[in-house]
Each structure stands twice: as C-alpha cells, then as structure tokens.
Design goal:
Blueprint (H helix, E strand, L loop, with lengths): L5 H29 L5 H9 L3 H16 L2 H32 L9 H15 L5
Helix pairs in contact: 1-2, 1-3, 4-5
Length: 130
C-alpha cells in the first residue's frame, strides 16, 4: 500500500478539521439556543467547542511543513510569516481604532479566517523562496 502524499494528507486533515469545526459550531449554537440558562463551566465548554478543531488544523499544517521538501517548506513558511505579520498588524491597528476612534468592534473569532485570507494573498504574491 502506498503512503499518501503530504498534499493529500494535508487536504484530508484540513477537511476533517473544518468538518469538525462546522459540526461543533452548529452543535454549540443549538445547545446554547435550547439551554438559555446554561452557566458556569458547562457554558464555557460549549462556547469554546468550535475552537477546538482550529488546534487540529494548526497541527495538520505543522505536520505538512515537516513532510514536504526544503523548497516547499521555505516558500510555505515565508507565506505563513507574511500572513502572520499582516494579521498581527491588522488586529493591532484595528484595536487602536476601536479604542481611540470608535471603530466597530471586531470579534476575535474572525482572526483565524482573516489569517487564512491573508495567507492566500501571500501565496499569490510569494511564489518562490527567494
């Protein structure tokens, strides 16, 4: 039996993590709607449920980086670093805008999709490791 490629493992892993994310998000919404009096540790556990697969997706990404060759690793990490820097900059700038200029509040759960959107942009710009 042949071993799956790093790309295939990445797609399967990310697909699984995002499927788990969607399922836990729907489950948490339904639980919170059907149990409005939920409080304490149970409320916190239900509220954080959708975030757990995000940790899995990070693990999948790190495993992918470990499995690819040096060139792909260098390009991927360059994109990751650029997207991380842009995400940190954007979140910090928006925080100052919220605090000092009355900008609309930005929900922190949106940082993860913003990061991946910026990663996609960095991927379009950075096509080589140089």
């Amino acid at each position: 039996m042949s071993k799956l490629s790093a790309n295939t493992q990445y797609l399967i892993g990310m697909g699984g993590a995002m499927t788990a994310y969607a399922a836990l998000l729907v489950a948490s919404i339904l639980i919170l709607q059907s149990h409005p009096g939920l409080a304490g540790p149970a409320l916190w556990a239900v509220a954080v449920m959708p975030a757990l697969p995000i940790g899995g997706s990070i693990w999948v990404f790190l495993r992918y980086i470990d499995q690819v060759d040096e060139y792909v690793r260098a390009v991927t990490l360059k994109r990751f670093i650029v997207a991380t820097g842009l995400t940190l900059f954007a979140c910090t700038a928006w925080g100052f805008l919220e605090e000092n200029a009355g900008a609309h509040h930005f929900s922190l759960y949106l940082v993860y999709p913003v990061f991946w959107a910026l990663y996609g942009g960095a991927s379009a710009l950075y096509r080589s490791a140089a």
